[in-house]
Amino acid sequence: MYFDTHAHYDDRTFDEDRDSLLAALPESGVTLVIDPGCDVKSSRAAIELAARYEHVYAAVGIHPEELGDFTEENICEIARLAGDRKCAAIGEIGLDYYWDDTHKAEQKELFKRQIELAIELDKPIIVHDREAHGDSLEIISQYPELRGVFHCFSGSAEMAKELLRRGWYLGFDGPVTYKNARKALEVLELCPMDRLLLETDSPYLSPVPMRGKRNDSRNLKYIAEKIAEVKDCAAGDVARAAYENGRRLFGI
Ligand code: NI
Q1: Lower CB density within 10 Å: C or N end of the chain?
Q2: 36 CA distance to ligand 1 middle (Å)
Q3: What are the φ and ψ backbone dihedral angles of 27, each rounded to 5 degrees?
Q4: How much is the pTM?
């Protein structure tokens, strides 16, 4: 059984077949999914999908690329949505200096506001950290009671060790199957089995051999197979561990 802890089924690329795809996931072995929001609109859509499908949970939040959505009114709306019984986390939130390194202060402010919301509501967070490793680590370190996952972890082995020491989980996605995955594989080697999560980030980041096509949760098996190679175990063992880890972190 697979738990895809990060898939954007509210994305418009699923408009044609969203319902049939989601309804069929349990039959293909994917029995739990978290759909993280990126702004108010997609957070609402994620909550709606979670209400419709028993195996789908939502996360709500404003992604750093959606900085324009950062208003007091929207933070209040995210807080309201977070009270839904199918809201498993605040996310995806974080810092993205690849996309924009000219509004770092605003990105940090938005990140911290949502971290504080997560602490208030006692929910884990789903962190998006792209080329902002130092600042991301520095910010989460200010909140020792905070827990969550670094989604599609792309930091160094040293950063991974520090996060693991602090009780964080690491998310692994399609890029572990890519040829240039040296750093991610190094991190995988040191990540204990009880701290890894399997994520697709659908519709993005399709793993080999599906690269270039729209991604969906059925492709988790390719990520699990790659991890199993590194960990010298069976893909089923990876899937089972990640499934339990996801349930533990997100309280499902
Ligand atoms: Ni994502």
Answers
A1: N
A2: 7
A3: -65, -30
A4: 0.98
Mean pLDDT of 214-241: 98
DSSP 48: H
Residue among 55, 25, 31 nearest 216 (CA)? 25
**Per-residue model confidence (pLDDT) at position 70:** 96
* Burial of 16 (C-beta count, 10 Å sphere; 0-12/13-18/19+): exposed
Neighbours of 112 (CB within 10 A): 14
Tell how far the Cα of 130 is from the centroid of ligand 1, in angstroms: 11
Which amino acid appears at position 87 of this protein? C
CA–CA separation, 162 and 36 (whole Å): 25
Q: How far is the CA of 240 from the centre of ligand 1 (A)?
A: 22
42-95 tens-digit pLDDT? 999 999 999 999 999 999 999 999 999 999 999 999 999 999 999 999 999 999
Q: How far is the CA of 63 from the centre of ligand 1 (A)?
A: 9
